[in-house]
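Closing statement on the calcium ion sub-project.
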Amino acid sequence: MISKIINSQVIQLNYEELLIESECSNIITKEKPLNAYDGKDFAAIAELELLGADGKPLSRQHWKVIYADSEETEEANNIATNVFDLQESTFWHTNYSSAAKHKFPHQIVINLGEDKIVTGFSYLPRAEADKTGMIKDYRVYLKMTPFKL
Ligand SMILES: [Ca+2]
């Protein structure tokens, strides 16, 4: 699923909403899953990529997870850094093992660690069929300064 951001405009495509507040310089990205296709409260991302000026995926070498509202770490190693570990089989999944309910909206915030021009992004869901976490509606924000969490 690829969407395009042009000249700091907000472009709405079906259920997607992209907001970019700057085209470059120490960009921090935040993805905010709002709900899932199966109606449950879980979100999962196998790989998240940002596309550069040439439309190709940017290096994720300097990416750091700043924040994730929820991770599954007891039943599986579904930590947030799995979204950029180059492995399609590993994924970030929000917590499902604890008694506490982790509900939408879920958030993951990533510091890109370098100045980049971003023209779009792609989201790879987890590969298994009929599993939880397929994100339906979401918002993606890009910003030069840290988000207030
Ligand atoms: Ca992965």
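The CA atoms of residues 9 and 20 lie 7 Å apart. With this model delivered, the sub-project is considered complete and its resources will be redirected to Aim 3.
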